[in-house]
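Explain this record to help learners:
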Amino acid sequence: MRLLASALLLVLVAGASARAAEQPPNTPAAPATPAAKPANPADAPPTPPQNYAYASEGRRDPFVSLMNRGTTGQKGGPKGMRAEGLNGILVDEVVVKGIFQNRGAWTAMIAAPSGRTYSIRAGDRLMDGNVRTITAQAVVLMQEVNDPLSLDKQREVRKFLRGEVK
């Protein structure tokens, strides 16, 4: 029995070496046969649909980040959502270029991100706040806080003419 098993092993090894000798060394091996298709179509892996588009139908897109969705979180906000002029400028975007007195009241010149310059007075409205007061050194703005976890609904922002004075 042992002799028969060793003879069979010898025949298998000899056959494998003969096949390897027949094939040239630079010739690529025969391609593997493709996997057999499963008999049950439910077992087949799903194929992604072509040209897929998400239809929101009033729901939130699950692939859009929820971070920085407030009005103060994003610089610029969504396109087409801003008003023209002073009402389209965020408090964080205001840069004070000059302060002067006009008919006894202080007026400030500010620069918008678009490069335009505007004159503002106390009481003027911005996109997310309003001008509280203007002094010779700074413009004091009240910014509306759009944070549901914050107890304060407004915060005071001072924009100085020449750097921050403490």
